């Protein structure tokens, strides 16, 4: 190799040319192979595409022909089916018509035969009864005529004997005339007495039959009325006593039938014994009825008490379950925080172990541990200088002043701005600005909880309670949307948030799903919410705030129940002045109505609703308050109907129905946004009142009651 030229040995140039031609030939073969493969592949793709198009066209044609044949076959089957159905239906109708005609003819013939047989039997029975009556009457008349003729013959014989004696004793004309006159008088008197005796016997027999019929009817009426009611039975017994003690007045006549008198006395004694036995039975049944009524009332009271206790236990258990579920979710968050913070704690253990005192919200005594605070936060750094500690102290004092100013400002009634509670948004903004949610220890949450607790001490003022319910619920909603566990987003990025089990978790869900016009505070809250990683004090503050919201909510609900409890006892029974003319329309009470208790209930509901609206309480809470209040009204009215039987009348039913119509009108006026499902909570009392106002209850069957009245 020279400076400007390269010299090769002999034969090297040929070797290089051979290698060059070999490389060029290999490259040319590769290029030819690629070109041929490309052309063959392109040709193959074109052939395959055309084959596919041809196959698709052939298969489409085959499918169309198959479809056309199947369609024709289906139409043929349908035509055959319809024709067979028509023929079978026609044959069935003809057969059914002929069977019905034959059945009607046979049934009519059987009914006519039965009617003819009944008429014949009735006519034969009537003929037999008249014949027996005629024979009995004929026998009685013969006996009566024979008795009268024997009595007349005997008395005539006695009179003739006396006349013979007088004729033999008085042979003189004067004595004879006197005896004759005397005998004529005696004969007239005897004939008169005989006629009177006949009449008296007939009257006594008629009186006896009438008396027996009266006594039998009285006994039957007593037995029937004993089954119907006790009061009517006592009246009938007195009537029976009076009728049994009556003795038919019979004028004294010289001829007395002692057998008839003895029969009457024995029958009277039997009636007296029967009446005394009936009185004893009535007394025994009265005692048994009183005992059973007392036992049934006691059992009913026990059942109602047990039912109320069960309802209370269920509600308490439900609340405990909700609280436990909330605690479990927050415990999981805290565990995740502790797992993330364990490496830092292990690094700081060998440098510092400050002895701190923890308060309720995780606040520690700052004055004793100011110097140890930087060591626990950053274990790598050394202790700060005195100037740094002075700066921290001034910063803490300034923060305390800010917290005091916030507490003093929020403790007053700040009102609302565009439907938003000013106090709740002020607290939330200040806590965000101070980064209190991210602090490991702070006293601001304790101060806020103490302030809220002292502010709601006056439980009787619903306006004040509604103001704090609006502020606390809005603040709780803001915390619910903004607080998240530290490190929870990195640990479980795809995990869905837990479903809300408590009332106020459902309230937050309701805020998200409800329209913006109904929830101005919730819509405004979404604009200021900012996601922050919450520490333990912030999560504990959220739990305590939820407890206060529940407490204020319960106070408002209980105040309304106390106000309504005194009116509900008066609303179950119609006033005496209006029982005769209870409002039939069931729609409204006039100004001249005898009772304004229902109107007082409506006024109380309107007052509370206007108070809650003025304080912009979330509609979810308003719905819950009125739903539980209407459930309380339903329970009170229904239990009053069960315990007070005198209230279960038609007039009281009309009165209560008119009041319920007023409540329905109130629910319609309040709209579903605030009333919710309150009207459905009155289901049981509406069904009971609907049953009371039915006119002919004995015509209603059990199925009609269960299906129509109480479905």
From TrEMBL:
<keyword id="KW-0112">Calmodulin-binding</keyword>
<dbReference type="InterPro" id="IPR052072">
    <property type="entry name" value="Vascular_dev_regulator"/>
</dbReference>
<keyword id="KW-0175">Coiled coil</keyword>
<feature type="domain" description="Dilute">
    <location>
        <begin position="446"/>
        <end position="711"/>
    </location>
</feature>
<dbReference type="Pfam" id="PF00612">
    <property type="entry name" value="IQ"/>
</dbReference>
<dbReference type="GO" id="GO:0016459">
    <property type="term" value="C:myosin complex"/>
</dbReference>
<keyword id="KW-0518">Myosin</keyword>
<protein>
    <recommendedName>
        <fullName>Dilute domain-containing protein</fullName>
    </recommendedName>
</protein>
<dbReference type="InterPro" id="IPR037975">
    <property type="entry name" value="MyosinXI_CBD"/>
</dbReference>
<dbReference type="GO" id="GO:0005524">
    <property type="term" value="F:ATP binding"/>
</dbReference>
<dbReference type="GO" id="GO:0007015">
    <property type="term" value="P:actin filament organization"/>
</dbReference>
<keyword id="KW-0677">Repeat</keyword>
<dbReference type="Pfam" id="PF01843">
    <property type="entry name" value="DIL"/>
</dbReference>
<dbReference type="InterPro" id="IPR000048">
    <property type="entry name" value="IQ_motif_EF-hand-BS"/>
</dbReference>
<dbReference type="InterPro" id="IPR002710">
    <property type="entry name" value="Dilute_dom"/>
</dbReference>
<keyword id="KW-0067">ATP-binding</keyword>
<dbReference type="InterPro" id="IPR027417">
    <property type="entry name" value="P-loop_NTPase"/>
</dbReference>
<keyword id="KW-0505">Motor protein</keyword>
<feature type="coiled-coil region">
    <location>
        <begin position="166"/>
        <end position="337"/>
    </location>
</feature>
<dbReference type="GO" id="GO:0005516">
    <property type="term" value="F:calmodulin binding"/>
</dbReference>
<keyword id="KW-0547">Nucleotide-binding</keyword>
């Amino acid at each position: 190799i020279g400076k400007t030229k390269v010299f090769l040995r002999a034969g090297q140039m040929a070797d290089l040319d051979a290698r060059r031609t070999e490389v060029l030939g290999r490259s040319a073969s590769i290029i030819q192979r690629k070109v041929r493969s490309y052309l063959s592949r392109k040709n193959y793709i074109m052939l395959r595409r055309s084959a596919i198009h041809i196959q698709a066209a052939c298969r489409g044609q085959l499918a169309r022909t198959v479809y056309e044949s199947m369609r024709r076959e289906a139409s043929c089957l349908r035509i055959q089916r319809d024709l067979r159905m028509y023929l079978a239906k026609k044959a069935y109708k003809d057969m059914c018509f002929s069977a019905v005609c034959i059945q009607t003819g046979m049934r009519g013939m059987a009914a006519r035969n039965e009617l003819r047989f009944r008429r014949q039997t009735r006519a034969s029975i009537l003929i037999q009864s008249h014949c027996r009556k005629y024979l009995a009457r004929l026998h009685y008349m013969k006996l009566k005529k024979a008795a009268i003729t024997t009595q007349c013959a005997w008395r005539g014989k006695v009179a003739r004997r006396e006349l013979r004696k007088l004729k033999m004793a008085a042979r003189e004309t004067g004595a004879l005339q006197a005896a004759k006159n005397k005998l004529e008088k005696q004969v007239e008197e005897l004939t008169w007495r005989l006629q009177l005796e006949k009449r008296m016997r007939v009257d006594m027999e008629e009186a006896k039959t009438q008396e027996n019929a009266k006594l039998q009817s009285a006994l039957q009426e007593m037995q029937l009325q004993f089954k119907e009611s006790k009061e009517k039975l006592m009246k009938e017994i007195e009537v029976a006593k009076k009728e049994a003690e009556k003795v038919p007045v019979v004028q004294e006549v010289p001829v007395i039938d002692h057998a008839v008198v003895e029969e009457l006395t024995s029958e009277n004694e039997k009636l007296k014994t029967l009446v005394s036995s009936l009185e004893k039975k009535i007394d025994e049944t009265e005692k048994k009825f009183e005992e059973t009524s007392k036992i049934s009332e006691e059992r009913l009271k026990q059942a109602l008490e047990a039912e109320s206790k069960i309802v209370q236990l269920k509600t308490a258990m439900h609340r405990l379950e909700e609280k436990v579920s909330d605690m479990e979710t927050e415990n999981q968050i805290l565990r995740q925080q502790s797992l993330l913070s364990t490496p830092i704690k292990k690094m700081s253990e060998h440098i510092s172990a400050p002895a701190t005192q923890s308060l309720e919200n995780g606040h520690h005594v700052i004055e004793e541990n100011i110097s140890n605070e930087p060591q626990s936060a950053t274990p790598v750094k050394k202790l700060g200088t005195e100037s740094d500690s002075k700066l921290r102290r001034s910063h803490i004092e300034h923060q305390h002043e800010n917290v005091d100013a916030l507490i003093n400002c929020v403790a007053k009634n700040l009102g609302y701005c565009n439907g938003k509670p000013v106090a709740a948004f002020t607290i939330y903004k200040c806590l965000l600005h101070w980064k209190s949610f991210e602090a490991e220890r702070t006293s601001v949450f304790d101060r806020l909880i103490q302030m809220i607790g002292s502010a709601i001490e006056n439980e009787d003022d619903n306006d004040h309670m509604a103001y704090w319910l609006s502020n606390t619920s809005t603040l709780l909603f803001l915390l619910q949307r903004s607080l998240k566990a530290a490190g929870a987003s990195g640990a479980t990025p795809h995990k869905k948030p837990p479903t809300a089990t408590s009332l106020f978790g459902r309230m937050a869900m309701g805020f998200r799903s409800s329209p913006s016009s109904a929830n101005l505070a919730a819509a405004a809250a979404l604009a200021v919410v900012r996601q922050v990683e919450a520490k333990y004090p912030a999560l504990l503050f959220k739990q305590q705030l939820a407890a206060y919201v529940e407490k204020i909510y319960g106070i408002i609900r209980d105040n309304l129940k106390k106000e309504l409890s005194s009116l509900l006892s008066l609303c179950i029974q119609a006033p005496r002045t209006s029982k005769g003319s209870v409002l039939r329309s069931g729609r409204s009470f006039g100004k001249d109505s005898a009772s304004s208790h229902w109107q007082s209930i409506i006024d109380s509901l309107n007052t509370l609703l206007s108070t809650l609206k003025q304080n912009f309480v979330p509609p979810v809470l308003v719905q819950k308050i009125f739903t539980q209040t209407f459930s309380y009204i339903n329970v009170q009215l229904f239990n009053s109907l069960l315990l007070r039987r005198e209230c279960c009348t038609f007039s009281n039913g009309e009165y209560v129905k008119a009041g319920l119509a007023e409540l329905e009108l109130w629910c319609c006026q309040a709209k579903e946004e605030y009333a919710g499902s309150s009207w459905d909570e009155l289901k049981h009392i509406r069904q009971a009142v609907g049953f009371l106002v039915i006119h002919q209850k004995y015509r209603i069957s059990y199925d009609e009651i269960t299906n129509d009245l109480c479905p």
